[in-house]
Amino acid sequence: MIETSQLTKRYGDHLAVDDLSFRVEPGRVTGFLGPNGAGKSTTMRLITGLDRPTSGTATVNGRRYADAAVPMHELGVLLDAKAADPARSARNHLRALAAAGGVPRRRVEEVLDLVGLTDVADRPLGGFSLGMGQRLGIATALLGDPQTVMLDEPVNGLDVDGIQWIRRLLTDLAAEGRTVLLSSHLMSELELVAEHLVVIGRGRILADTSMADFLSGADEHRTLVRSPEADRLARMLAADGVVVSSAHDGEFEVRGVEAVAVGRLAAAHGIELHQLATRDTSLEEAYLRLTQDAVSYAGHSTGHDSGADPTSGATSGPSADTTTTALTGSPA
Amino acid sequence: MSTTVDLVTPLRRPGLSATLRSEWIKLASLRSSWLTLAATAIVMVVIGAVAAAASASGEAVGAPGSDGSDPLSTVLTGANFAMLILGVLGCLTGAREYGSRMITTTFVATPRRWRVVAAKALVLTTVVVPVAAIGTFGAYAAGTAVLEGAGEPTVALSDSGALGSLLGMVLWLTCVSLLGLALGFLLRSTASSIGSLLGVVLILPPIAGALLPDSTDAVLQALPSNAAAAFTTITATGDIDISGAVGVVIVLAWTVGLLAVALRRVVTQDA
Lengths: 332, 271
Description:
The structure holds two protein chains of two kinds. By secondary structure, chain A is an alpha/beta fold. Chain A contains twelve helices and 13 strands. In chain A, 37% of the residues lie in helices and 24% in strands. In chain A, the strands form three sheets. A six-stranded mixed sheet of chain A has the order 5-6-7-3-8-9, sandwiched between helices. A four-stranded antiparallel sheet of chain A has the order 11-12-10-13, covered by helices on one side. In chain A, helix 3 packs across helix 4 and helix 4 crosses helix 5. Chain A is elongated and about 75 Å long. Chain B has eleven helices and no strands.
């Protein structure tokens, strides 16, 4: 389990992580989402103790990572796949780390085999591709047979096989009762593997919720309508107070009203329909809508006096019900 | 490709010995470490022999300022090069992981960071001491043999201060590489740590000696390479009137002090 409590990190004037409190539970894969610069990597660095928090705490399985008796057995980390000496071979790299962690030598061969690098284990790391580097990073993370695994963008540079493999691996690790925290910018990837989500923007929690709730909470009955009398139908729907947007002639999208209602209205007025389709909200769309505020807020803010702008719905405070606040607060 | 993780590998609670093993594997698994160490010993011995031969044939040799007549200085002419190489090895040992960002991986594996600094210092000392000893005593043996063959005066190990000078040279070379290690950790850059080390050890003393008035000789003696002149064959840039023992204390104080500053920075600052 990973737990942060009022975790805050300030670099000079920049507030990278702002009063972050969340818990990553064992037994499931938790996705860690946020736009670039949201503070994901900083949060992970604070959890590992690479950076010191300005205030607040981060613990792994109930203790500060640096205080663990056998750190490598508590937490396995992939933060930066290229953080290795290019002149050293994969095998020697892992041997050195295994020795540091009190891990027996044969475990090196096990993780090399596990990530499929045995054949290239004696090549210098400088010649590794991004995908091979990621595999080595995952091998490093699993070296100590850790209770908790934390991976920053692990699918970066992996091929389709590799992505499927890591998806299975993470699911298996969670099924074994381990804690898995996974950041990714590939929303579709997280959607397939993560059961729970922690979303941050500008260093603050935007959502801490199950994947199902995140998706349904963002659902607004988006319906695509195509009709030769699109304009007339759109005007009627708009009069009812639903949101109508139009991309092309003869086509528009309604939110807040179900397809059935649109069809009925059209039938009642004898309007011909060519298409009436309900669109599911993907995680990516739900996420973009949620983080939009955080991103644009960051764009026009010049200072670091976060919280001073009460108009920003999505950053209205890290209370327990942030999820609902953020989701209902975000404009359509 | 299997997806399951083999569970329950026996793990030892890692202490300093685990970090030492890790740092040893790191150093030993880089070919450049061995090349550097071999080069140090070879350069000292070869230059010692060549300098002895040149001295025997009547040419002026030795570092600038040395009179060339001291046989011990002559056979240890290569020490300045060894100092450069071992100093660079120290800087690389401290700074190289910052360049490759390996240091983050290292500190995640060993979150008690003082152990990393301590282990690197101990491993570096473990390899540098024998190499410096082989180079120093090898140069002495080879150079002395050449001088003897030419019928030139030589220094016996039993002569007053001779053995002390040779051992002092081993100590000095080791301390230079540890100073490099400390600077590498402090500056986190191979280039700037090498630059700083050369500045302090090679460039600063002659400049300070030339620019500062004679009344500051006491200050000049506190510079590491000038203090080293009191117990080695290294040539000082001013009048040195401290004993060998005081020189050793000054050099050790520099080394321990700079390592302590580096340790503090590593432990208290973000990686």
